[in-house]
Specification:
62% helix, two-stranded antiparallel ribbon, mainly alpha
């Protein structure tokens, strides 16, 4: 059975991209997540499941985007998948 892992790099990039369009305190007010927690997440800390779900709702991104199930994939394939996801997220954020 494949073990799921959290892609914190992709999450961090996605969160930073969304926060580039709004102020940190506005995000905190809209989500109920403290500015300190948001700042830590932007610097690579992993979110709790509750925080992940709240921020995914705020960013309008499915949480499973950040879950990787196959760690044995070749690095090039993982990079291509990550880039595809980032491209898709960027399109959603622009739209």
């Amino acid at each position: 059975m494949k073990t799921p892992t959290f892609n914190s790099t992709l999450f961090q990039q996605t969160l930073r991209m969304h926060l580039a369009k709004t102020r940190l305190d506005d995000c905190a007010n809209q989500t109920g997540i403290s500015m300190g927690t948001l700042s830590r997440l932007c610097h690579g800390h992993k979110p709790s499941l509750q925080v992940l779900l709240i921020l995914c709702g705020w960013m309008d991104v499915a949480p499973d985007v950040f879950i990787v199930f196959d760690e044995k994939q070749e690095p090039c394939a993982q990079c291509a998948i990550k880039q595809h996801r980032l491209d898709a997220i960027a399109k959603i954020a622009q739209g």
